[in-house]
Amino acid sequence: MFTSISPAPPDAILGLNEAFLADNNPDKINLGVGVYKNDQGQTPILESVRKAEALILEQETTKSYLPISGSQAYATGVQGLLFGEEHPLLSSGQLKTAQCPGGTGGLRVGADFLKFAAADAKVWISKPTWANHRSIFAGAGFELAELPWYDPETRGLNFDGLREALKQVPAGDIVLLHVCCHNPSGVDPSPEQWAEIADLAEAGGWFPFFDFAYQGFGEGLEADRAPLLLFAERGLRFVVAASCSKNFSLYNERVGSFTLLAASADEAETAFSQVKRLIRSNYSNPPRHGAAIVETILNTAELNSLWRSELDEMRNRIHSLRHTLQEALEGRGLGDFSYIGRQKGMFSFSGLSDDQVNALRKEHSIYIVKGGRINVAGIRSETLERLCDAVAAVS
Ligand code: LMR
Q1: Exposed, middle or buried, 24 (CB in 10 Å: 0-12/13-18/19+)?
Q2: Farthest CA pair distance, the chain
Q3: Helix (H) or strand (E) holding 256
Q4: For the chain, what percent of residues have pLDDT higher than 90?
Q5: Does the CB atom of residue 248 touch ligand 1 within 6 A?
Q6: Under DSSP, is residue 196 helix (H, G, I), strand (E, B) or coil?
Q7: What is the Cα–Cα distance from 175 to 155, expressed in whole angstroms?
Q8: C-alpha to C-alpha distance for 133 and 1, rounded to whole angstroms
Q9: pLDDT digit string (tens) for 238-281?
Q10: Residue identifier of the C-alpha nearest atom 2 of ligand 1
Q11: What φ, ψ does residue 361 adopt, rounded to 5°?
């Protein structure tokens, strides 16, 4: 059975993590996988999470199965995060949310569902995008096409290119959009640009698939959801895959979701029955613990405000690290790094070439994703100087 199988290449991000763990250099630095770390290099369990877990341990009465679509209280909590608790869509019946294993699980459930709903559609992804997007949508059977996104000249958004390309997307095709903190570039559209993208969706009739993995890491929980509110206000229909890995720091609990917004409650109900059918034949129903933590936090006033302050702290730390990194690199006369301060979220698209990325890994045990994406949240005061010296050495 297995004799003719050739080895798969290591994963661009998680494979790099394995290489980092195997490196014996005590001074190694991991700026690869998108995981938040504090200044001691740890990914601590949030205080709000610990308190929620204590409550769950006390109150939990069963380990029986969840429904196929997961916990309803979690689904309602997710919809509140996506649109705001008071948003009229929450009581309209037009929204349906499935609890999924991580944002990746949400993306795959959504991809399988859209393949069922629109077998001939193409999926348009930004260039560049998170490496796994390609695998997820190709794995679901879609043909993929690319849209311009990052402009290496300005180190910002190639909006002219994007606008022209979006005009060419056929009606009924699917466009994957990162709601905020574009991964890997950190380059997001401005509110005016989002409004134009919504105009183009309306005029062109293509279908938006939003990936929302970093809510709270851009400008904040409320500000980051603005593109979803905008598209909803226009009466557009769309789907969202969201993740609680980063904003609740629940990486290994695999907590995410898939949400669809349909034209009516009836339409939503029917479409969601197919989502549930697809989940049942995939992983049957989702695990309970991580989602229980999220719903306990969201539904307990004291924990909710504690969590929000912990999330603000993570975002502010990354923000200040961006400026520290910018100053340290500029201090070495390596050029203008103001773009690091302008980019949003966990990542900075450093402009390092693949040769430089390889040299940093081989000669300095510094791990950066191919393409030059740096996890800013992985930088520590203790390692900053060594990192900047190494970047200078390979520049
Ligand atoms: C990343 O981009 O590093 C994260 O989303 C983690 C992952 O699964 O790749």
Answers
A1: exposed
A2: 61
A3: strand 256-261
A4: 98
A5: no
A6: helix
A7: 22
A8: 29
A9: 999 999 999 999 999 999 999 999 999 999 999 999 999 999 99
A10: 34
A11: -75, -50
For ligand 1, whether the C-beta of 33 sits within 6 Å is yes
Token representation of residue 98: 């499935």
pLDDT band at 296 (very low <50, low <70, confident <90, very high): very high
With CA atoms as reference, report the closest residue to 165 among 153, 179, 148, 178: 148
Amino acid at position 306, single letter: L
Q: Taking Cα atoms as reference points, which of 65, 101, 67 lies closest to residue 276?
A: 67
Phi-psi bin for 187: left (phi > 0), alpha (psi -120 to 50), beta?
A: beta
The tokens describing 296, both together, are: 């306990």
**Cβ(282)–Cβ(106) below 8 Å:** no
Tokens of 310: 């912990």
Q: Give the model's pLDDT for residue 1.
A: 96
Q: Which amino acid is at 178?
A: H
- Active-site choice (112, 246, 307, 344): 246
Q: What is the DSSP letter of 377?
A: G
With residue 215 as reference, give the H or E element that holds it. none
